[in-house]
Write a structure and sequence with these properties.
Elements lengths: L4 E7 L3 E5 L7 E5 L2 E10 L9 E14 L3 E14 L2 E18 L2 E13 L7 E3 L13 E3 L1 E12 L8 E15 L12 E12 L7 E9 L10 E7 L3
Antiparallel strand pairs: 1-4, 2-3, 4-5, 5-6, 6-7, 7-8, 8-11, 9-10, 11-12, 12-13, 13-14, 14-15
Length: 240
Amino acid sequence: MSYPFVGFDIIEDKYKKVGDENQIGRTEDLYFGTEVSGEVGLSNSAFGADRNAIMLAAHLLRGFEIGDLQQLFMTSNFSSRIEDGRARNLIANVGGKYYWRWRPDWLLYAAVSGTVTDSLDPDLQLLLGGDNGLRGYPLRYESGTSRALLTVEQRVYTDWYPFRLVRVGGAIFADMGRTWGSGVIGNSDPGMLRDVGFGFRLGNTRSGLGNVLHIDFAFPLNNMRGIQKFQFLVQTMQTF
């Protein structure tokens, strides 16, 4: 694909400064406004592309404050292209994140997301496993054409700051999700998968990126053949 495009981005100026939410010991700017963006492009051989297509993309974000202690963030994304009179590589995603600080250093977090696709390109896969939210199962355990995931997490923030290198936090979590449709890899249809677990969070204070090291121990609740009784994951992420 090679194409010029036109687009728009409408951003409401509505931010709030917080701390100890998606990072540990860092100042965060949360967005509580409405953002809408869209893009239309034309892929054509005149620009070096190997096919003609209309490229489409859209994004919507909305943040809500529920009193002084709760927040809700809703997002939706859409992308596709019109090629030979039909939609191809269509990906539509909706999600929500909820935060409730019911104690000064304790925060209840919940996230739900759903994704549907149609006519995906061969180089794209819709995966679900330990590396993208279902922590009690191996990496890339399921694949399909649709996906749903629910996560509930109790986060704990501490003042422990060993050697002034990392700030330490922890979490107890539960995940539930599955895929639908025929994927390229993964189990054929294991149904709804569930896990519980706990982990530690190390906030890197020596990096401008704000990376958080996740060390998780997760336990699958489904009795699946070939799955270990617990999964040990270590990964670096942008958020808690």
